[in-house]
Every structure is written in C-alpha cells, then in structure tokens.
Amino acid sequence: MELRHLRYFSAVADALHFGRAARRLHVSQPTLSHQIHQLEEEVGTPLFERARTGVRLTQAGELFRTYASRALEDVNAGLSAVGALRGLATGALRVGYPPSMRGLVVPALAAVLRRHPGLALSAQEAVVRKLERQLAAGKLDVGLGYAPARLSDLDAEAVFDSRLALVVARGHALAGAESVGMKQLTEEPFALLSRGLRVRARVDAHFAAMRFAPRVALESNAVATVLAIVRAGLAVTVLPEPRLTDAERLVVKRLSPAPRSELAALLWRKGAPRTPAAELFAAEVRARAKEDAG
C-alpha cells in the first residue's frame, strides 16, 4: 500500500463518483479504478459498491475511511513540520525590542541561534511606538513592548510584569539596602532616559505620585549611556527592572513604596502568519520571563 492509494481512495470516498474523483486528481478514470482495485486486494475486501449512477462506501469502506483520513492528516502535518524545520535552518527572524528589555531579548536570541545557526537574525532596538509602526507595516516578525498595544493592528500577548527599580553602582552606599525609599534619594544625582520616552513617563509619574523632585544630572535616549554613568558611580537611575549583563558592577534595588507595574508583552501583527522562527523566539522569551517570575 502506498500513499497514493490512500489519496485516491479519499478522493473517491468524497466524490462518490469515479469520473469526478479522477478529474479532481488529474488522472484517467481507468488508472483510478486500477489503483482502487489494488487497494481493495490488499485490504482483502471491497471498499466501494459500484453502480451505474455512482458508488457508495461499503461498511468496510466507511471504517477504512476513518483511518485513511487520519493517516493523510498525519502525513500532511509531518510535511508541514519538516517544512518548518527547513525554514528554521535557512530562514530569517526580524525582532524589535525597547532598550530596557535588552537583557531579556539577547539571551533569547542567542538560544535560538545556538539551536539554528543557519537563521539570519535581525534585531532592532528602538522605542516602543516606532517598533509598533514597523511591526504593523510588516517590517518585523515579532516585537516586544507593552499591553495593550497602542495600534489596533497589533495583538499584545502579556508575558511578565514590568516593574520600575532603582539601579546603583556596586560600591554605592545604597547597594546593600533591602529596599530604597524616596527620602534616601533626596541628595542623589539621577541619570534618566529622555522625556518623551515611555519609560521616562512612567518614572516621572511615580516621582509625582511620591511628591519627589529628582536632581537630574543627565538625560539620554540611550539606556546604555544611562547605565554607563551609573556604573561609573556618578548617578543612580530608575528603569524597568533590568536583567543586568554586568551584575558585578551594577545592583538592582526595590523601590518603596513599589511603583505601579505595566504588562510587558510580545507584540504580533493581527492576522499575519507567525513564522516558525518567531514562534521559537517567543517561546524562549516566555520561558525566561517565567524563570524570572519564579
């Protein structure tokens, strides 16, 4: 028995007519009849009752149809899986993320690349509103941002709570504190992200709620610049709780009272097919977010 026998049988079972089934399969009617006869010989019993007006399934044919359909579905699923794997071997992945999520995204991308070194990765770091526009325009496969998304063209899949935290240098006087209150920060110089950025709006809203006026020594639109100043011991900062790649030189401390959190999310274009590479990356992000939450 070969795969074509199952496909020919399924076509006749659907059409209940050899002529229509043959046209659908693009084979001659005698060829189709011969293949069905071969199948019936192997099964050991007739699968169709033939008449001038058409055919109908025998009891054995009805039973066999269930298993044939299941077998064809499994074969098609297998072909799709192999095609997806082939896509992972030679495909591409375009990811966009805000700078504050770099510590989560970079390890996830590295894990994807280790498993599928043939993938061509493109990682764009930008503010969330720019990433949303690019994702909606089809220039990215998946993005990271916040839920709900600003654009109606996007779906936001919440993956973890994004909490603001204080970041100080390892040798800073507050590095050993369990948590830090606003009064302890009165004399501290701050390095903050520039106004107009979403994170800065969150930081300013928390400071306003606490009736706290920070002494801002530096503003920058680059997280790397802000952290470089903090790393040098020249200022402290408040950012969405970062995963630090240089934990020996920087320390993350909880703020008291705790600022209001936001839902960090995977962003997808509504109605667009999700590539196997994008799904694999998303799975890595979910796993790492779950580890952090645990």
TrEMBL record:
GO molecular function annotations of the record: DNA binding; DNA-binding transcription factor activity
Q: Which residues form a coiled coil?
A: none
Pfam family of this protein, just one? Answer: HTH_1
- HTH lysR-type domain: residues covered: 1-58
Please name the Gene3D superfamilies in this protein's record: 3.40.190.290, Winged helix-like DNA-binding domain superfamily/Winged helix DNA-binding domain
Keywords from UniProt, A to Z, are: DNA-binding, Transcription, Transcription regulation
Record's GO cellular component, any one?
Answer: cytosol
Q: Which branch of life, at top level?
A: Bacteria
Note the InterPro entries from the entry. HTH-type_LysR_regulators (IPR050950), LysR_HTH_N (IPR000847), LysR_subst-bd (IPR005119), WH-like_DNA-bd_sf (IPR036388), WH_DNA-bd_sf (IPR036390)
Family the entry assigns:
Belongs to the LysR transcriptional regulatory family.
The protein's name in its UniProt record: LysR family transcriptional regulator
What is the scientific name of the source organism?
Corallococcus interemptor
